[in-house]
Amino acid sequence: MAIDPTLLREIIMDHYEYPRNKELIQDDSYLSRHMASDSCIDDITVQSKIANGKIQDIRFDGTACTIATSSTSIMTELLVDKTVEEAKEILENYFSMIDQKEYDEDLLEEAVAFQNVGKQANRINCATIGWKAMRDILKESEGE
Fold this sequence. Notes:
Layout: H1 5-17, E1 31-36, E2 43-51, E3 54-63, H2 66-79, H3 84-98, H4 105-108, H5 121-141
Antiparallel strand pairs: 1-2, 2-3
Helix pairs in contact: 1-2, 2-5, 3-5
């Protein structure tokens, strides 16, 4: 489904100007993953508290461009209160969308704002850096 590009831009800018969950916490019950880009300023840490197979909280902080900040902010809202299995399905769909493959738009909610990023190779890492951190955290939570 085609979505108004102006609306997509507004979603991205809203999450960049007012990022959600952008503050780390000192708590040993949180898993943490630091990610830094080799090609731009993106340098963030993502934290998540996962208990009983459910994501209870996700936070992030660091220096990042508009795309990295807004995509990570959207991810934090999208995955909280999801089971690990639900989160994995959402992550899989997000990466499929970025790779310009088939995906379930309904699962991604506001993350569909990044549907055209895959057409801009230089922005793919920006749009996936926080999502890759969360994917690593989920694997770690399952002992992988």
